[in-house]
Amino acid sequence: MTVARIVFPPLSHVGWGALKHLVPEVKRLGAKHILVITDPALAKIGLVEQVTSPLRQEGYSVHVYTDVVPEPPLATGEKAVAFARDGEFDLVIGVGGGSALDLAKLAAVLAVHDGSVADYLNLTGTRALEKKGLPKILIPTTSGTGSEVTNISVLSLETTKDVVTHDYLLADVAIVDPQLTVSVPPRVTAATGIDALTHAVEAYVSVNASPTSDGLAIAAMRLISRSLRKAVEKGMDKQARTDMANGSYLAGLAFFNAGVAGVHALAYPLGGQFHIAHGESNAVLLPYVMGYIRQSCTKRMADILNALGGNSSFLSEVEASYRCVEELERLVADVGIPKTLGGFGIPESALESLTKDAVQQKRLLARSPLPLLEADIRAIYEAAFAGTIVEPGKV
């Protein structure tokens, strides 16, 4: 039996009101000069003040950095790192969605390294991280990315995405407070929620799955599937928001340890070439990728169907796997995400360039239970454009 490598962040506070642990954790880390990296929209609506005000009341020096954009390009990462290097900070706090948290991780680690961010990219970089960097506390305000518990920072390149990845990017403290998510608008709630579900689904069928990641993934799917629709429709619902926060957190732990695969590999070029939000990129592709690889993991897809609230008891594994794909399609549609690439304005002429870029995501593709070659990837993109589930040999 293969030995699984299981890694969790050092410390997490999870639950309604968890933000109360922020000041004690800052004290424990011995910080004085704090850099808060956050989304400008969160600063505008006053949400960031829930983080900064208690710190300033305790006498901490706090600088709020808001040069953050969705799907941050490499240049944005370079600017954040340069700012952290120049500021003589001793703690970085990330507040926001995945983009803000990824930039906070990047800035905290590379603040103590030489060279550019590009030097450390997974696909093309030539330098290795050698030091842990500044302590970091990560506080998500969406339920989706799982960035608060992973060791990856994602950056957009000209036509695709790449990552800086190392255990040094893990948070010293993650604070997951669902109360911070109640103001997230429905479209973002839907996209980030399906993103979290994708993390759990892909972790469960990953070739690197283990009993530990399986338990996390199944629990995440149950929480998300029972609460996402309500969180989108009634954003103030405390139970729905709590379930989504817990589900996203568990899904993050699951995919950090088992990895994601084909959905993410094909989603990266959508973000790189057309600047589609990561969660929506995953959402539109999820049923098509899972439908294509279905034959390689029918038992696991039957399990997923049950976790999504279905019942495979009176179905064969094959029948349950088909029903699983249908349930994924239904959930994506119910939360209002377009079901085809054309729904996002992507022309058929782009499928070739999308395929060429997706093929390069070998780190992700290696985890797929069905090897996805260039022809397979092209077939999936064509299916997502046409709105029809296809399988190998039946294109």
Automatic annotation (TrEMBL):
Signal peptide (residue range): none
Keywords from the named record: NAD, Oxidoreductase
Name the UniProt record assigns to this protein: Alcohol dehydrogenase
UniProt domain Alcohol dehydrogenase iron-type/glycerol dehydrogenase GldA: residue ranges: 13-178
InterPro entries: ADH_Fe/GldA, ADH_Fe_C, ADH_Fe_CS, Alcohol_dehydrogenase_Fe
Domain Fe-containing alcohol dehydrogenase-like C-terminal: 189-385
Family classification: Belongs to the iron-containing alcohol dehydrogenase family.
